[in-house]
Design a protein that fits this description.
By secondary structure, the protein is an alpha/beta fold. Among the domains are: 38 residues, Monooxygenase; 101 residues, Ribonuclease Inhibitor (Leucine-rich repeat, LRR (right-handed beta-alpha superhelix), Alpha-Beta Horseshoe). The protein is 41% helix and 9% strand. The chain contains 22 helices and 14 strands. A 14-stranded parallel beta sheet has the order 1-2-3-4-5-6-7-8-9-10-11-12-13-14, with no helix packed on it. Helix 1 packs across helix 6 and helix 8 packs parallel to helix 9. The two termini are 45 Å apart.
Length: 446
């Protein structure tokens, strides 16, 4: 049936519909009883709750249902992700002609067959579009952004993740024609530079979320432009923007006091100066991702915890300098903490887990705790975690002092917890008389 629905989406029936009017079809004596008993307005309302596959099925039942199912009011929100391998440009063009001004939200995530030409037709026909997801549409270029800028002035949410042909010219066009934009995802668009960011933020000053993961050419100057114009910003993702330093983060913090979510993972040059700026300027911070920021220390996280009491999620993977002191401060000052990653933080011990478990967040809020490769963690830590009644997931890969017995005892107290752990095979004894190196079973196989 999925294949049938996809063929129907490609067909001209989606555009042309029946030559008869709805009133003419409903007056036909051959129509079903339901069409005679229920007003067409009520039937249309029922159809408005159906998904795209069901609408395509209904459109093939009868002439009356074809008109009802293909009424533009039923196609305000469309997600074609499940059809991504089948969707071609013609499908997008057909949908745009059928939906017209009704369409508010369209997801073409993963539809690699869609290109600039079809999206130009879409932009011309669907000028009320507010939410557009083009994640993974690798064929599109700056031309698509020009079309959106020219025809789609109401656009608020745009996802261009992995659209690798996008350049600064796209951002200039968007800034001129899509000034209502609130969310923009440019992750892995690695041709973007500070000039494109400057053009964007000058025109789109209402941006609330800007995702720039993997935009490896961005430097501190780009963040200075964001600070100057985007005072409404609440979410910023700079993952793997490895050229960013403390100077850029300080600029952002000073200009974006409403910031609630910040991802700095992979920004390996950052120091405690960035944490200090966050602590002093962004008291509403809820999410901080700082994985692989190996220069951050307890001092920076202590100041952060004492000033940002709304923290809910923290990713501190490979922040190798932090100790139990950071956990003590989070336990005291961050009662809303729900998810914490400490993977590869090899200085964390059972004592730090004790403080976390005995805190307000441990008793009430903590849902996810990741302790992979925390080599000092033992079964004692698991005993402490038994007081975390809300814990849902615990990661213990390569915690060499944690045993199966310890996990079993904890799960007896917290049966709903999903524990992920790995126990390396026991190293076999050296063969009698052998002088070769001792290898575990995995290495022997390799």
């Amino acid at each position: 049936m999925r294949a049938t629905s996809c063929r129907f989406l490609k067909s001209t029936d989606l555009v042309s519909g029946s030559p008869l009017t709805l009133a003419e079809v409903f007056s036909n004596n051959d129509e079903g009883l339901i069409n005679k008993k229920l007003p067409k307005e009520l039937l249309l309302r029922i159809f408005s709750f159906l998904d795209i596959v069901t609408l395509c099925r209904c459109a093939q039942i009868s002439k009356a249902w074809n008109i009802l199912a293909l009424d533009g009011s039923n196609w305000q929100r469309i997600d074609l992700f499940n059809f991504q391998t089948d969707v071609e440009g013609r499908v997008v063009e057909n949908i745009s002609k059928r939906c017209g001004g009704f369409l508010r939200k369209l997801s073409l995530r993963g539809c690699i067959g869609v290109g600039d030409s079809s999206l130009k037709t879409f932009a011309q026909n669907c000028r009320n579009i507010e939410h557009l997801n083009l994640n993974g549409c690798t064929k599109i270029t700056d031309s698509t952004c020009y079309s959106l800028s020219r025809f789609c002035s109401k656009l608020k949410h745009l996802d261009l993740t992995s659209c690798v042909s996008i350049t600064n010219s796209s951002l200039k066009g968007i800034s001129e024609g899509c000034r209502n934009l609130e969310y923009l995802n440019l992750s892995w668009c690695d041709q973007i530079t500070k000039d494109g960011i400057e053009a964007l933020v000058r025109g789109c000053r209402g941006l609330k979320a800007l995702l720039l993961r993997g935009c490896t050419q961005l430097e501190d100057e780009a963040l200075k432009h964001i600070q100057n114009y985007c005072h409404e910003l609440v979410s910023l993702n700079l993952q793997s923007c490895s050229r960013v330093t403390d100077e850029g983060v300080v600029q952002i913090c000073r200009g974006c006091h409403r910031l609630q979510a910040l991802c700095l993972s992979g920004c390996s040059h950052l120091t405690d100066a960035s944490l200090t700026a966050l602590a002093l300027n962004c008291p509403r911070l809820q999410i901080l991702e700082a994985a692989r920021c190996s220069h951050l220390t307890d001092a920076g996280f202590t100041l952060l915890a004492r000033n940002c009491h709304d923290l809910e999620k923290m990713d501190l993977e490979e922040c190798v300098l932090i100790t139990d002191s950071t956990l003590i401060q989070l336990s005291v000052h961050c009662p809303k903490l729900q998810a914490l990653s400490l993977s590869h933080c090899e200085l964390i011990t059972d004592d730090g887990i004790l403080h976390l478990s005995n805190s307000t967040c441990g008793h009430e809020g903590l849902r996810v705790l990741e302790l992979d490769n925390c080599l000092l963690i033992t079964d004692v830590a698991l005993e402490h975690l038994e007081s975390c009644r809300g814990l849902e997931r615990l990661e213990l890969y390569d915690c060499q002092q944690v045993t199966r017995a310890g996990i079993k005892r904890m799960r007896a107290q917290l049966p709903h917890v999903k524990v992920h752990a790995y126990f390396a095979p026991v190293t076999p004894p050296t063969a009698v008389g052998g002088s070769g190196q001792r290898l575990c079973r995995c290495c022997v196989i390799l």
